[in-house]
Write a structure and sequence with these properties.
The protein is of the alpha+beta class and 114 residues long. The protein has three helices and five strands. A hairpin with a 5-residue loop joins strand 3 and strand 4. The radius of gyration is 14 Å and the shape is globular.
């Protein structure tokens, strides 16, 4: 299976999404894949996972020159992302990883995170 990394992540996120919808009635994440950075000359793809109810967003970036690494950030739909991203190996990104991110980040209130 020689799939592009962004498509592999989309499959992983879809698996997590299905489990989230079964386990959490109040979370209905929206997953988006964007390749538009390439049109601007940036050799990278992006994925967003949004929670419409809370306005929270998880951003995931895959750069071509570091194809085995993903950069991710917990942010908000209505705010510009920060400049700092967490880093992890693409091989460590599993359906359980995405499930944990979504269930924890989208279930906590801003007060809980302070």
């Amino acid at each position: 299976m020689n799939k592009e990394p962004i498509l592999m992540l989309a499959d992983i996120a879809s698996e997590a999404h299905a489990r989230i919808q079964q386990d959490f009635l109040h979370i209905d994440p929206v997953i988006g894949v964007s390749r538009s950075m390439r049109k601007s000359g940036i050799p990278a793809d992006a994925m967003t996972i949004d929670c419409l109810k809370t306005g929270k967003r998880i951003i995931i970036i895959l750069h071509d020159k570091e194809a085995d690494i993903i950069r991710y950030q917990f942010s908000y739909k209505d705010k510009d992302p920060g400049s700092e991203y967490e880093v992890m190996s693409l091989n460590d990104a599993t359906s359980q990883t995405f499930y944990d991110w979504i269930s924890h980040y989208f279930s906590t209130s801003d007060k809980d995170e302070q």
